[in-house]
Specification:
Layout lengths: L17 H4 L9 H4 L1 H11 L4 H16 L5 H12 L3 E6 L4 H13 L3 E6 L29 H11 L3 E5 L5 H8 L4 E5 L11 H4 L19 H19 L10 E3 L5 E3 L9
Parallel strand pairs: 1-2, 1-3, 3-4
Antiparallel strand pairs: 5-6
């Protein structure tokens, strides 16, 4: 087991959790008491008629009305209905397109229009982003990169009022939410190893999945991928270090009439 490292005390180290019921005393490091001004600002806009206020109240109402009775699939539909959403966008991973298609069908039965945009939209090969061919999952073939920004832009132009993410990769989900004009929520979180149930790694962390507690036991990247990355870095360094040699210009002089006359070369020959 690795040595314990120092950390700043925050909510993950709290054993009181007085912020929920307020039936105990707040610990000395409690963030609730450290940010009174920010607390008041957020309370005000949650109570307002802004987008944040509408989202906050809709989420709280669903929790109160259906706590422990609805699946997440059903909750996303109830959430959209409470907000009065007519057009719901779906940003889906290509590996979960079947699930996204069924989800879209279910949403439409609730009277909400849908539009699904797959992650590979645009079909831009990874090498066009500067990714070495050897770092592809299938080297030597066309392999489109995920394009979450384009997914968001297409749904923006369509007029989506709420977007739902279905299995976007770690990082690509962040890009999508940055570019989405409509509020975005997640239906399925991708985890290729654990059947899209990432919390399972935490539930087994102290038993079957101990490797996540020790960085030294983390799986090594594919050897081919590492070699391709090193080769790409080496080529980039050579290109950057290589001086740019400009071709020498031939000496010229103007005659009295303005015409250009070529000057003989240094070796004495005429050009």
């Amino acid at each position: 087991m690795p040595k314990k490292q120092n950390c700043t005390l925050s909510c993950s180290e709290c054993a009181v959790r007085n912020c929920y019921r307020k039936d105990k005393a707040f610990p000395a490091f409690c963030l609730t008491e450290q940010y009174p001004d920010a607390l008041e600002r957020t309370r005000k806009f949650y109570a307002s008629n802004t987008t944040d206020g509408k989202l906050a109240r809709a989420a709280a109402e669903i929790e109160g009305e259906y706590y422990g009775r609805l699946t997440r699939l059903e909750e996303t539909i109830r959430f959209a209905k409470k907000l009065g959403v007519k057009k719901l966008g779906i940003a889906s991973c290509i590996g979960l397109l079947d699930e996204a298609s069924l989800y879209a069908k279910i949403v439409r039965t609730a009277g909400i229009e849908t539009k699904t945009v797959i992650c590979k939209v645009g079909a831009v090969d990874k090498t066009q982003l500067g990714i070495p061919d050897g770092l592809k999952v299938c080297p030597g073939c066309n392999e489109a990169c995920c394009n979450p920004a384009l997914q968001a832009q297409i749904l923006n132009e369509w007029g989506a009022e709420l977007n739902v993410l279905v299995g976007l990769c770690v990082g690509h989900d962040a890009i999508f939410t940055r570019h989405s004009k409509a509020p975005a929520t997640t239906f399925i979180v991708k985890d290729r190893v654990l059947g899209h149930n990432p919390a399972a790694a935490l539930y087994t962390a102290r038993f079957y999945y101990k490797r996540i507690l020790d960085e030294k036991t983390f799986p090594e990247p594919r050897r081919e991928a590492v070699e391709a990355e090193k080769a790409a870095e080496k080529t980039a360094k050579k290109t950057a270090a290589k001086p740019v040699v400009k071709p020498a210009k031939k000496a010229e002089k103007k005659t009295s009439k303005g015409a250009v006359k070529k000057v003989p070369s240094a070796k004495g020959g005429k050009k």
